[in-house]
Model the fold of this input.
Amino acid sequence: MNMRYPFIIEEPFRADRVDEWAQQFKTAQPFCHVVMDNFLPVDHARFLAHKFPPPEHPVWLDWRTRAPNQYGKQGPGNSSRFDLLDPEFRFALHEFNSSSFLQFLEKVTGVSQLLPDPYYTGGGMHQILTGGILDIHTDFNYYSRLQLYRQLNVLIYLNEDWRPEYGGELELWTSSIKTGGSCAKAIPPLFNRAVIFKTDKSSFHGHPREWSAPEPLTRRSIALYYYTAQKLEGTLYDESTDFQGVSSKPLPEGR
Done:
């Protein structure tokens, strides 16, 4: 039986830009990162946007029980409810764990022997509702479930017709609030834009500016994390997400 797969990451992926992006990643400030526009084939990006679960979908955790630093942020927590997703969308998520995509990441970042997370802990996809924020923070980078060390974040934005007044820019900060850190770069979450950045205890990031698009428009992203089996020398690893208190909003009462 012939089958047409709607989303397959071909090998080699983005060979036309990999050297250029590798140079940008290595030299970027305030920490290693690269911003890549027109990242996926446009049909793939549109497919992901079309299949992306809406706010009322049962895959999402209840953000109202989470934390003021993540007001209005929807996430699945992990893959335990991925069976509720559209099967073609679920297949597409798994493609980002493929050898083709891992080899691309290794070439761009110089981090070798990368491993994906089959459980998508903390990632998979995120959605920010109107009024939502994500405080500046650094992520957990020791993954106790698999005893792995987190090295990279990959964010792929699916926000068609983004406007500056919608806000929600990804901010990269120089350091912690305690040491006088400030925003060094604000990256609009444009459709089919990807951001790859090094994940450690100096990669302060978030979107403290509210997502202000009119309902029902949400800030949508694919969120992917990649690991190694060995520590990088001189790097601190722990299981904490270190929010900085730049932005927070009280959760709805009664929760």
